[in-house]
Amino acid sequence: MKKTPILFVCAAMMLTGCSGATATIKDKDETIMTIGDTKYTKGDEYELLKISTGSDLTMELVKQAIYKQEVKVTKEMKEKAQKQVNDYKENMENFDEQIHSLGYKNSKQYMNKVLIPSLQASELTEKYFTDAKKDIQKTYKPSKARIIQCENKATAKKALKALKNGTDPEEVAQQYMVDSAKYSGKETLVTTKTTDLSTRLINTLSKTKKAGVIDEVFTNESSGTTYAYVAVLVSNTYKDIKDDVYTALSSDDDVTKACLVYYLKKYNFEVHDQDIFNNLKANNPEYLVSRPDLSESDD
Q: Where a domain ends, among 120, 138, 156?
């Protein structure tokens, strides 16, 4: 797909002009209300909205543009959204009045503006796990393994010897794992988000080229206690574990943000309104993908 800048989706917020420009709207001097001797124009309303919600609105419009390119609205989506509306109406009192209070004309508009985009967002996240598999592998280093958590290195060495002799990991765990162990020889997905395992173990599982026993004892501190671990790699082949990776990571805030950044880069997202740029720079510099230097750590 051709990489086309998605500036067109919200021309009122983003301009193709020079640096330092600010966007304006048509008929900005048109009066929309008068209080006493004071008149308020469309321009006044626009500037207030831009300051208070401008960057959020911009990103919502950008997301809609990305959805249009990447995730088409299907018959199944419409049916699912309609079912949600029906469920709301059945289980909530005054549903129509509630959505009116939120600014929606009717349930159909609510379905099109809220429910269907929510379904598209989920679909986009799932698609991201295919489109950005290299990024995901590099960042999260996923693998599936059978890990045994032991009380100390001495016990872990005995467990490792049993594993190398071909004993099933769950059987080894029954003999050597610590009481109330989180890792008891069953298959588990491991990623960089797995905070109770050592970085070395996570990296080793990710890099090992052949499934089988990892010939090493690993240690890591958990809740103030240092435990020892041994592991058997089941698979780190992405296509074989992708569904598990998606299940484990799709709801993570960092992954959700990385998903959006991935597609912003794909479509060369740029911001040329100085106010919106400054707001994103302060709060979400990672979205300014044309300026990667702004999101670099100071460390």
A: 138
CB 78 within 8 A of CB 120: no
- Helix ranges (DSSP H) in the chain: 42-70, 75-91, 95-101, 107-110, 116-131, 133-140, 153-164, 169-176, 199-207, 238-249, 253-266, 274-283
**Structure tokens of 167?**
């004993």
Please classify residue 57 by burial: count the beta carbons closer than 10 Å to its beta carbon, then call 0-12 exposed, 13-18 middle and 19+ buried: middle
CB 122 within 8 A of CB 74: no
Residue 211: strand pairing partners: none
The answer as to whether 218 is a domain residue is yes
Asked if the structure places residue 131 within a domain, the reply is yes
Cα(196)–Cα(121) distance, integer angstroms: 30
Task: Give the number of other CB atoms < 10 A from CB of residue 274.
Answer: 15
215 part of a folded domain: yes
Higher pLDDT, 246 or 49: 246
Structure tokens at 148: 């045994």
Q: Which of 230, 264, 282 is nearest to 59 (CA)?
A: 264
**Which residues span the domain enclosing 116?**
43-138
Last residue of a domain, one of 115, 138, 161: 138
Dihedral angle computed from the Cα positions of residues 71, 74, 77 and 79, in that order, rounded to the nearest 10 degrees: 170
Token pair, residue 58, equals 């911009």
pLDDT for position 19: 44
Instruction: Give the pLDDT confidence of 62-118 residue by residue, as tens digits.
Output: 999 999 999 999 999 999 999 999 999 999 888 989 999 988 999 999 999 999 999
113 is a domain residue = yes
Q: What is the per-residue pLDDT across 174-205, written as a single tens digit (0 to 9) for each? A: 999 999 899 999 999 999 999 999 999 999 99
**Bridge partner list, 228:** 150, 219
The number of distinct structural domains making up the chain is 3
Same domain, 95 and 108: yes
